[in-house]
């Protein structure tokens, strides 16, 4: 995707593992995902509320969920999970595009929303991406999803294209 | 049933083409294939994908190329030539699977007086 990116990279991003207390007093642990975590992600997405789906993902039903997780966890992708005990409650991913930029998506299950997990998960996945040398990250978000857009802007994402149903936003993690 | 199917180079575009031909064969009627680019492939690339796809069917279709403003051309042609339905690809998937609708699809959805079907 041909998009413009901000000139200056983000700084002060954490890398996993990160432990913090969310707005409801729960201790949340953020770690990079491994192959063994797939089952926990399947569980998380089986419980996922369909009103929080975005542009067709996550898909519904176990088969489509597994197929989709295969795509987003392939070799060059980067996946980070937020854990509440042994339950996966949030998942952020960076998936490589064909021009060496990365697409970002994040999901937090409904029972754990509005407590700061999304922001912390985003900062951590971007920090890990930065430490692995990723320089350009983009995302698309539905135009009416104002709360999500506000979170992305606060983190430093800039709107680059809002001529369609979806807004494209970009952030820079390093110089090319 | 007179169908005009807009085909970009996406996977959903080829599915839209297949479904339109199958529907026309079932119900009787003609299919016009309108090629357009959403910026990711050239019209020539899309045309060769489409002719490959068409060779699998024993069917006569008209193929036209929409160079400029494909959305408004599709809407105009469908109305002026009395098509029953516009069939379009249901978007394009991003690397991590999100569906995005192109400006062309959005334009047709908002401006068409003719019924529109999106194919996934």
In short:
Chain A is α+β, with helices and mostly antiparallel strands and 176 residues long. Chain A has helices at residues 38-46, 62-72, 117-131, 146-155; strands spanning 18-21, 27-32, 78-84, 87-96, 102-108, 136-142, 158-161, 166-172.
Would you mind describing this structure in some detail?
Chain A has 176 residues and is α+β, with helices and mostly antiparallel strands. Chain A is 26% helix and 30% strand. Chain B is α/β, with parallel strands linked by helices and 120 residues long. In chain B, α3 packs parallel to α4. The longest helix of chain B is centred in the N-terminal third of the chain and has 17 residues. Chain B is globular. Chain B starts with a strand and ends with a strand. The model of chain B has no long low-confidence stretch (mean pLDDT 95). Chains A and B meet through α2 and β4 of A and β6 of B.
